[in-house]
Amino acid sequence: MRVLLFGKSGQVGWELQRAFAPLAEIVALDRDDAAPLCGDLTDPDRLVTTVQRVRPDVILNAAAHTAVDKAESEPDLARAINADGPNALARAATRCSALLVHYSTDYVFDGAGTTPWTEDAATAPLNVYGRTKLEGEQRIRASGCQHLIFRTSWVYSSRGQNFARKMLRLAAERDELSVIDDQHGAPTGADLLADVTAHAVSLVKRRPDLGGTYHVTASGETTWHGYALRIIEAARAAGQPVKVRTDAIHSVGSMSFRTAAARPANSRLDTTKFRRAFGLVLPHWTVGVDRMLVELLGC
Question: In this structure, which CATH number among 3.30.450.20, 3.40.50.720, 3.40.109.10, 3.90.930.60 belongs to the domain 2-160+188-219+263-284?
Answer without folding.
Answer: 3.40.50.720
